[in-house]
Amino acid sequence: MFGPSGAGAAGLGCCNRTVSATMPVNRHAKRRNVAIVAVPPARMLDVVGPAEVFTDANKLHGVEPVYEVEIIAASDDRTVPSQIGVPIVAHRTYREWDGPVDTLLVAGGEWPPDKRHAPDFLSWLREQSRKVRRLGSVCTGALVLADADLLDGRPATTHWNWCNELVQKHPLVKVDPDPIYVRDQNVYTSAGVTAGIDLALALVEEDLGTSLALQVARMMVVFLRRPGGQSQFSATLAAQSCESQPLRDLLVWMADNLTRNLSVAFLAERAAMSPRNFARVFKQEVGETPAQHIGNLRLEAARRQLETSSLSLEQIAEASGFSSAEILRRTFVRRLGITPGQYRVSFGQSKTTRFLA
């Protein structure tokens, strides 16, 4: 029986980061060289997204630019082809780079699994990694860092679609498929595409404080700290990828009826299937048992309420299908590592309004 209960499962995990306290902007911050490496064929947003963040930080800093941003081609040609057909004209190639680097980010692209990057370029990355203050990647740029043996033994992430490839090709890398970005000492890896903006905002926050990073986020109309992780297959989206029409309809109904007593027998009857066959088909189509899916739905519903409402924990538990506020609290701690109160402080509506208003 899966009525209101404490069954919980990880939905969208929080990004791995330390949230700094609000600090005044350092108006006399020293100039920092940021090199963003475009690996052909580059994904345009992986390159220009972080560049826009650092550029807006320069504008909002007020006194003088803090960041000197350069695009570096990972080839012998400054003109780097992109996935959308519009080339990126880099400032220089990696062979031409001779200046100091504060922050080096390797942007991603979509390459075949057997892609081999030039040995000279990988050697250059290894050499630069010993000189830079911060080294990072955007999206599949993590695969490039891994090819240069710079992620061995480290926790790292990449676009969810390439996590398995990263695991298979580089078993020494501790791959976490969910976070928006991961920091391990001075090495940063971020998830898919737009996560490069999240990472760049975090780097600006480290350098110049929360206040200025919030101004940049507001200018770009994005979250400073995006709620949730990169999981693209949340429980509420499962219906969209389910091939069985009766089951797809049922998944939609389940999301709207979380306070019902959702037993396997009851759900199987709605799907016009025997309980045994229903449980088998459900696991095959959705990738998790009915109990796990219901737990995911209820946890996600509670998270949305914490993010967008001022309801009490007791009211949220009741509306999400949990039998009590205490069971909801235990589920949060077990699955997300924080209490509902801590989650609301980080991602609640009042905090978001204060950041973006």
Tell me what you see in this structure.
- By secondary structure, the chain is of the alpha/beta class.
- About 45% of the residues lie in helices and about 10% in strands.
- The protein contains 15 helices and eleven strands.
- The protein has a seven-stranded mixed beta sheet with strand order 5-2-1-6-7-11-10, with helices on both faces.
- Strand 6, helix 2 and strand 7 (about 135) form a beta-alpha-beta unit.
- Helix 14 (about 340-345) packs parallel to helix 15 (about 350-355).
- The relative contact order is 0.15.
- Residues about 1-25 and about 350-355 have low confidence and may be disordered.
| Helix proportion | 40-55%
Number of helices: 15
Mean pLDDT: 85
- The SS-based structural class is alpha/beta
- Overall 3D shape: globular
What share of the residues does DSSP label as strand, in percent? 5-15%
Distance between the termini: 45 Å
What is the tally of beta strands?
11
Strand adjacency order, main sheet: 5-2-1-6-7-11-10
The largest sheet, given as strand count, sense and whether it forms a barrel, is: 7 strands, mixed
Low-confidence stretches: 1-25, 350-357
- Report the order of strands and helices: EHEEEEEHEHEHEEEHHHHHHHHHHH
Gyration radius over CA:
23 Å
